[in-house]
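quick one before i forget lol
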Amino acid sequence: MDTWQGSANVHSYECNASGRMRPETLLHWIQDAAEAHASALGFGYGWGREQGLAWVETAVNLRMHRWPAWKETTTFRTWTGIASPVQARRRFELYDAEGILVAEADCLWVLIDMERRRPVPLKRMGRLLPAEECPAVVQNLPDWEPGSEEATEARAFRVTERDIDFNGHVNNASYLVWAIDDLCERRFYGGSLREIHLAFRKETLLHEEIAIVCRMAAGRTRHIVTSGGTVRAEVDLVWQ
């Protein structure tokens, strides 16, 4: 198994008012580690541009054991492999200075043709992607039980420039930020965030109008992000 390892300190601008890492910060760390490892293996951002391709994340399943604090030193490791003929899975683990696991994640990625905006088979990569299967460790949440949730009214807003990444669409971390901001607007407090489950259905572009609906149950919230009547992302959060 080819792994990429590194270390990182938690900066003040990556923390919330409690001095703990913001949830979106960890998503950014995972994306940066993925790019560094992919580039080292020969199929990173630069390779994709030459091929007219781009890596797009389609799902994140993340489990937190605790949130790192400001100035804390952490180490991480990441590896990747095949999940299906069109999906690669990336695993990510974050450890504290004592070597204790603090976070683990499974992320699914696809290669898209930048002109057609459509996925392409991973066999187009030749032998660049490790051939072994990469199994999941953080499983999807079970379906909601009928009648268990309290639905809220939709809130609307528009995509701004700060949400857009260099692939020209909304960065995946923005969907999580939108969901958490929406909970703050609704004065929800569920405790500490323990699991993050993101499913990205369709890319979202600058200035598009977004509607977000939240459903709440004991220890769990579910956020459906739509635009123009089409689901763009689903965000499931587990609280403790």
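fyi The chain has a mean pLDDT of 93.
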